[in-house]
Amino acid sequence: MAATKACTRAALRAIPGGGHDELGYMADLLAKTGRAVLDAVYPPLCIACRASTGGAQGLCASCWNKMSFIEGPVCAACGLPFEIDPGGETLCGACHADPPDFDRARAVLRYDDASKRLILALKRADRHDLVPPLSRWLERAARELVAKADVVMPVPLHRRRLWSRRFNQSALLAQRLARFSDKPFDPLSLRRIRATPSQGAMPSAKARATNMQGAFRVVNPSAIAAKTVLLVDDVLTTGATVNACARALKRSGAAGVLVVTLARVVRLGSVTI
Fold first, then answer.
1. Which CATH code fits 63-264?
2. Over the stretch 227-270, which tens digit does the pLDDT of each residue have?
3. Boundaries of every domain in the chain
4. Which one, of 142, 16, 17, lies nearest residue 74 by Cα?
5. Could you report the per-residue pLDDT of 91-137, keeping only the tens digit for each?
6. Considering the entire predicted model, what is its pTM?
7. Phi and psi at residue 150, to the nearest 5°
């Protein structure tokens, strides 16, 4: 590559008027040629079904149509999508009756069969190639929250679960999101100190909340003092996990806690207030 650049510079110097503009043009041409060669050898595939696509790190038309992206009016607190636009900063019935401990949450997708397939591929099938495109989705879905954040943190795993799984998918997403948005990334100040049973095994929202009590602790309060923390997780169901994280962070001095997830459970018939 160095030899190619040297040859390009030499050729440009031989051209009357050759300089930075021409060098930039040649660099772009070489980059485009390289991408074309790679696409010919390794055709870009859909990140969901692995069918051929027109571009890298994207979805094919069929998978795109199956994804339920959350767009339009949402609850001002938890990000629950509304069927009709109630106008203004409206809360859903659940947040009006019992305000969450976090300040705002946003999600990219509704949690359904299509989004579950992507999330499980990242979480259990070691599909780390999904991290860049999914992080881009997070950044677009929560751009307003990202702009307000001082530091980006993942929802942590307990050390025993991290040891068995070998990685924390939320940490991978948070790290890439922080890099995209030029925000500090802190995966260590918030820890899960209690090995809780899986939230999926809990029979109710109340049981999930009880399961998370005292599960998290801030071990470095100075890192989050007076700062707005952006928490990153894969799925928001009842909010019990991110609520427990938010309580721990605010008790240790965080000015605010914002949440962004890849997907969230959307129950039919949610009430707006």
1. 3.40.50.2020
2. 999 999 999 998 999 999 999 999 999 999 999 999 999 976 45
3. 2-41, 63-264
4. 142
5. 999 999 999 999 999 999 999 999 999 999 998 888 999 999 999 99
6. 0.80
7. -95, -25
